[in-house]
Automatic annotation (TrEMBL), chains A, B:
Gene Ontology molecular function terms on file: DNA-binding transcription factor activity; transcription cis-regulatory region binding
Provenance organism: Streptomyces cacaoi
InterPro entries: Homeodomain-like_sf (IPR009057), HTH-type_TetR-like_transc_reg (IPR050109), HTH_TetR (IPR001647), MT1864/Rv1816-like_C (IPR025996), Tet_transcr_reg_TetR-rel_C_sf (IPR036271)
Keyword Iron: no
Keyword DNA-binding part of the UniProt annotation: yes
Protein name: TetR family transcriptional regulator
DNA-binding region(s), residue ranges: 37-56
Domain of life, source organism: Bacteria
Gene3D superfamilies to which the protein is assigned, alphabetical: Tetracycline Repressor, domain 2
Length: 216, 216
DNA sequence: CCGCCATGTTTACAGCGTCAACATGGAGCA
DNA sequence: TGCTCCATGTTGACGCTGTAAACATGGCGG
């Protein structure tokens, strides 16, 4: 794998696709999905605009790549957040769910541009991995995050904090609450909040969530 | 107030601002906020693109007008949905909250373009009505919908289905759950759902919400 | 060593938001 | 009644965008 750090501009870039994705991700980071401008990404890489068409079918395809990366970042934030929460009791199970939510919300507030990019457009339900991963490859990132949620809710049910009769369908309630909290705070729909107010309001929402799931 | 339905193209339109808003709203209805293209709206009205600058400071200003209209539509949907739910008991209070949520979600699913337009960009927290309505005018639509939510939560508390100690901060939980449900279903993040599956999953989420709010 | 074709470039076009300069005609005043 | 002013429209231009077509380059397999 050759290194391409040399300043010499060579006709063939060598790693243009990834370079474009990195540039596009940077654009998305500050500016959101609408800032992912194909020509701007090409300009940053030092390449002509149309060169991008050798690696992407168009701007929307580049944006899709950014979206994939953003979803992976979201998953990473969730995984990091629940590290160490591995107990067996009811409280540990509840903390597992909350930790996932905290990672989700913190990512949205720390990287609003990427978070918005991760959920832009409609997720095509007939993606490349519609029938499972083809050759042992990875699931789509969003599938992965949904799987984490499922596991944590299973643990919640196993610990007795979620009646078995209500286990099915719990994913939507949990995801909706967490996503809604993230979107509303990120969009400043509750006004400007101090960091302390933010954590307070977020924790309250998570408490309501797990309490609702625990109801008979 | 003159009528301008005549086919004769007159140099001075007479009601251009509202005509442009109507056209822009139509664009937003199918296509969302990114479909609100100034030149397209002007074309629909049969007027030059730059004419719009006599009534709007630019495209973002036109989009802001669309957003206002969309928020009013959302409020109307919520009001219609809770019509007739005026009882006094605990169950009536719960139904009041749920009715608001149902109107919210149904609007999002019936008019996704308008719903997305209603929440595009960040709500500028220092809007024209930051210090209350200036001269007896209306509150900003979003303030109105938030007020409806507040009232229904007050009723819930009064009926005993929301402990007084947890009354404060309940708005976020409720709004987040409802908003999250709307966004996730609208964005097809749970796959394609039949109408029946949709109502089922929505009602479940609302059950979890009111159960969570009722917890001690 | 050579030729192919993956990967780059240049050029071009239409549509977008926006500005400047110009045109029109209705409302108010002489 | 008639004139004039300016709110409201128009045309033209600029730079930006996405994208297509035609052309250039040079690394790699034969």
């Amino acid at each position: 794998m050759p290194e391409h750090r040399s300043g010499k501009p060579r006709y063939h870039h060598g790693d243009l696709r990834n370079a474009l994705v990195r540039a596009a991700v940077d654009l998305a980071r500050d500016g959101g999905p609408e800032a992912v401008v194909l020509r701007a990404a090409a300009r940053r890489v030092g390449v002509s605009a149309t060169a991008a068409y050798r690696h992407f079918s168009g701007q929307s395809d580049l944006l899709a790549a950014v979206k994939d990366h953003a979803q992976q970042c979201l998953v990473a934030a969730m995984e990091e957040s629940r590290e160490g929460i591995r107990g067996e009791g009811v409280e540990a199970a509840r903390e597992g769910v909350k930790a996932l939510g905290r990672g989700y919300v913190r990512f949205a507030l720390r990287e609003p541009g990427l978070f918005r990019s991760a959920f832009c457009g409609t997720v095509d339900p007939l993606g490349a991995d519609a029938a499972g991963p083809p050759h042992g490859g990875q699931h789509h990132p969003q599938v992965r995050s949904f799987q984490m949620l499922t596991e944590s809710l299973d643990a919640l049910a196993e610990a007795g904090a979620l009646p078995a009769t209500r286990r099915q369908g719990a994913e939507l309630s949990a995801w909706a609450m967490v996503h809604g909290v993230a979107v509303l705070i990120m969009g400043r729909h509750l006004g400007e909040l101090t960091q302390e107010q933010t954590t307070q309001v977020v924790e309250r929402a998570f408490d309501d969530l797990v309490a609702g799931l625990a109801a008979p």
